[in-house]
Amino acid sequence: MSDRDPRPEDTRLTPAGQPLRIVLHTLVLLLWILVGASTMLVLRLLRSSAVYRFPLLFHGFVCRLCGMRVEVHGQPTAQHPAVYVSNHASYLDVFVLGSQIEGAFVAKSEVAGWPLFGKLAKLQNTLFLERNPRRAAEQIEVLEQHLTNGESLILFPEGTSTSGDYVAPFRSSLFAATESSAIQPVSVVYADYEGRPMSATEREAYAWYLPDPKVPVPNRSFVGHFVNALGLGPSRVIVAFHPPLQGGDRKQLAAEAQALVQAGLLERLGDGDQAG
Q1: Is 271 exposed, middle or buried (0-12, 13-18, 19+ CB in 10 A)?
Q2: Angle between helical axes of 222-229 and 19-45 (0-180°, round to 10)
Q3: Band of the pLDDT at 81, cuts 50, 70, 90?
Q4: pTM for this model (two decimals)
């Protein structure tokens, strides 16, 4: 934090979505989901290559419904397939990254049972992994087979979501499946809200996390949080692609990727409200 006096935006409350915008955008989203699901089913039946490109359009439109303008720094690697590893603040990260990257997300098995999101994730060929060390080798094989089939993967190696202003340690276990693929670190930064640097309290409207998984946070229901997001004002979300990594020990790769993602996050948060 700066030694200067606190700026007015640093004391703003978590923004509440506008009711009329929430109603309108919810109706549009439900219609878009029907269109998207039908389109994906048809593309799969036709075995069209567009089945990999349509999600970019689908996620991009959802970003617009949430008022998020995605600004891209750098570009995805030309190496294919690739493994994209990113920090994780929210389920909204899926829409943000999904609007820019062709690839399958890797998610915890619990997501498959989430209302609405679970169905959407399955349509996009998301890989669901259990948090069970006994099945680690089996799960690594699933990831390796996916890469062998030529499909890129999108991972959140923190293993949890955060408040969006820091990067938790990357777990190295999943990096064991990336030995023959390029690994591209990616920083997702919730940067501005309504034209000004986003404060920590404003970021609460985007970040979906529990400070302590064992201690529930009041008024943080998934549905309520997402519905509110549909009514928010304009925001700027940065997706920064860093130079790809390849080869090396999985723990070393995880550490290097984490350092790049964290540096990219803090740099683009600027002198706004940061952790530490």
Answers
A1: exposed
A2: 100
A3: very high
A4: 0.87
